[in-house]
Amino acid sequence: MYDYHLHKRMIRAAWKSLGPGSAVLAMGGFPAFSGFAHLTMALDPLLYPELDKVEVNKPVFILGHPRSGTTFFHRLLTQTGEFPVFELWELLVPSLAARRVVGPIADKVGSGFRGTMYHNREAVFSGGAHDTSAHSVEEEELLFGFKLDTQLFTFLTPLAFDEEDWVELVFSDHQPAARRKASTRFLRECFKRHLLDKGRTQILAKMPYSTMRVKSLLEEFPDARIVYLVRSPFETIPSHLSLHRSFFANRWGLENIDPQALQRYYARRYQHNVDLYRYFYSLQQAGELPEDQVMVIRYDTLLKDLEAAFHDVVAFAGLSVSNELVERVREQAEKQKSWKRRHKNLEPEEFGISKDRIARDLEFVFDAYGFEK
Fold first, then answer.
1. The domain that contains 74 carries what CATH number?
2. Number of domains in the chain
3. What is the value of pTM for the model shown?
4. Is the separation of the CB atoms in 212 and 173 below 8 Å?
């Protein structure tokens, strides 16, 4: 069932934050967009009876704090096509039936549909900026948008500037069981369709924000493998906040956002960054994550010993990879030796956060993973 009550709250928050405009209109039209997706997905089993035989076996989820190398590693592993990636238009059109209609249009539109939502995102195959287009590869977290159940809403929409925290969109594992399971079942259905569409057998998904729903993922996919990338908070937090500031500047213009609301957002996002680190760490410490299903990789390993990290993940997750991919990883490993960051992040103080505070709040991360304070 579509949560109309939650949707009304979102529209009110958008209106209050930025006033009447395109953002409110877009959110107002979301029920029709979501309804079309669910309706066409309901037609899929009738038009594609083979869908019933598709199984989602041993999916691999790349999790971790945003800006920890998740995009880098996902693109590295999926570049030769052994594992299906989701292009933006495919995430917006999860139904096989609908894709047959929309696909030709997406092909014609191609890069003509472009945006500049994200900037300075470190990736293997780009110059540092991540421009969105109909065919850009995006993260599977967007699929939860059809269930109004993703913290992407807390910064991709005017909810970012609402007085309410919207914690139910952040702490996914803390939601009522019915809602959690509805979301992960929907994700399974989307995965099944994508596997059938691409003729592949295993999902490899990059979903850093779903670190906060890792228990729900393991409940739905009990044979899943979790690859958790971890990077020093001194690097991730300024980078993440800088990324979001860039998005706000390009999407709405910083001058159009109430400075107090913007600062409130930075404080809120910082706290949720801390929460994400703490949540995964706490689950590990409590033994609530199966040790044989979780692999932790430090970000600096991707820079210094990429080949070893790659082969470790292949063995851990039981991935079937081509000789072509092995060779490309070897080539990338050579490039890593001379890699230098091409952009400069803002200092944490520009977001009202001191480096000392990061060290205090995230002391457990520095100690557990051996990062320098």
1. 3.40.50.300
2. 1
3. 0.91
4. yes
